[in-house]
Amino acid sequence: MATLLGSESPCTGGKRRNCRSNIITKFTASKITGQGFSQGTQLPTCLLQERDKRAKWNGIPTVLQKLYESSHPNSDLSHAHSFLKVLSSQLSVEAMSFVTEDRKTAQESTFPNTHTFDLFGGVDLLVEILMRPTLTMQKKKPKMNDDLVKDCLSVLYNCCICTEGVTKSLAARDDFVLFLFTLMTNKKTFLQTATLIEDILGVKKEMIHLEGIPNLSGLVQSFDQQQLANFCRILSVTISEPDVGNDDKHTLLAKNAQQKRNAIPSRAEVNQVTLLNIPGFIERLCKLATRKVSEATGANFLQELEDWYTWLDNALVLDALMQMATEEAEQSSTESSDESSLATSPLRHRLPQSMKTVHEIMYKVEVMYVLCVLLMGRQRNQVHKMLADFRLIPGLNNLFDKLIWRKYTASNHVVHGQNENCDCSPEISFKIQFLRLLQSFSDHHENKYLLLNSQELNELSAISMKANIPEVEALVNTDRSLVCDGKKGLLTRLLAVMKREPPDSSFRFWQARAVESFLRGATSYADQMFLLKRGLLEHILFCIIDSGCTSRDVLQSYFDLLGELMKFNIDAFKRFNKYVNTPEKFQTFLTQINSSLVDSNMLVRCIVLSLDRFESQTEDVKVVEVLSECCLLSYMAKVESRLTFLFRLITIINVQTLTQENVSCLNTSLVILMLARRKAKLPFYLNALREKEYAEKYPGCLLNNFHNLLRFWQRHYLNKDKDSTCLENSSCIPFSYWKETVSVLLGPDRTSLCAIGSYIDEPFMDLDRDLLED
Q1: What was the pLDDT predicted at 556?
Q2: Is 157 helix (H, G, I), strand (E, B) or coil?
């Protein structure tokens, strides 16, 4: 309030000191008692006018005061609307500069008009005006002018993006947040309402209960497809667990502790159930995700699309322009039904076809994100059945070549982070979200075969018949009426574009993850051969060995995919040996593996497991031949190689640093020891670890660390059915044997040759005894 100081005030004719004392005292008292001044607009008009120029308020407090005086209950709001329009024009300039230029820090010096508007109670006044119809006792609520509502919402949004703290203060008002949803029933105010809600929910401390929204089911069912797509932007905030994007980075200790504290379903999970109970909701999302878009033509389509996105960085601007175009078209249609007049209308002419395409792409990104989250939730099986019945996968297959993966130039190969929230173009976001959806759909679920067409399903059956093995039950049970149409299924199309990607393209990460999810679960020889026939193994090896790829994310995804592709498959190891046909190539391959075991340990596990199985099949001539010739199997057959991997796997992790990403290192080390135990060689391996400790001059350190890791393993896995099932399916080792081996290794009997404690000398025992104590 320092800007109100001065020598004299024409309001009182006295010294400014007295005026200052009275006003400041009253403002301070009002904050404490709730009485007296509550808004800056209650200051004397003459005082506001006197100080306006010096304080550079640009007349905002004075106009605000007029808005306040003309917006009393039962007053004619047309006058109030005229004052609001004056304010809106002043504030929109600052909001547009925020959108079109680099995002600036929201502070007074950057956006003085918006800051002044909020300082003098403008935000609270607009909230009061908007909510006024809810305060009446009349059965028939008074209806406000749509344009007035739109302008109120737009000004509030401008304040949110330009003035620090406004969004949080609005988010703290639960009554206002829920009230905003009621405004979405009006199509004319929907866009402004949705944009403001999205901004508010993004900063709200507690996730809202969707059940608390009045008549949510009726609201959603009243939306047209465009509104529903926009609504998905809001829903994404209400159904996603906090920090889901960094899930792999959270330590398992912290996550387990949080799960104990939150034993009941989270608010996000409750909201997911609420959505699934809305009749027709999932079916409409499937239609949105798969509806066709008129194809844009021209060699510079992608560049045009990117140029638009550079400017239309804000969803509000993009949707507003499209809405203007629609409204202009509707207005023109009332004047003339001639289609040519619509095509040549001024705004339509300025909006290229590519804008309509990118608009549809942005819609699909939001819809696919919601479907992806629901697929990963507790109601996964219910969602899966719905997506299958509503033919989501065949619909996406029909869009693949025309929209999802058009044949662009190399300019679309942008390397960026794998976080789904990365700041990238709609085209890139669309592709990544599509791949994440495929990954979630295929992962450990029998519906994965819907990614193929009928001919490809027949091919799988033929592979099984030729190998004289039974068909996978999930394949037999697949409903052929729900699979992909056309000459190629979605998986086959994905493989084709995967091979064309440049080595370091980050699309490779998501492509490999999507294909790997098709193979995950119980190993299927037919599935592996289907992909091997299409040259997938050679493509992966080229990327790892010959392409010069340096992206750790891409290499990790390819290591994981290679492991699933080769596991227990003697033909895959034969193909590997044919491609890696020189010592130099093999050494390059080993160097890539050893450069980061966190990234490659799943492949190491695959090789160890496969070797163990092949060594029990020596009656098979082909197996014996490959065992004797394959450089990879020969390398892993050496005890020294397995011991080296075991030592490194235990060394690079500890209980405090275990995450969902690196816990696989612990499980891979366990696989090596379980297979050793089967052959009665467990004491040999444990003694080798002890000798390694002393050779490194850190006695007890390695084995104590491993002891603590196994104690954590018991706590983590013995209460999680899903994780234990995954371990059993991926290794073909019964989970009971996993548990038994861990118990043996943690045995308290120091005379047992299979207990870790027997190999730690007394002075070095239990270095970290209290590490896991509650």
Answers
A1: 94
A2: helix
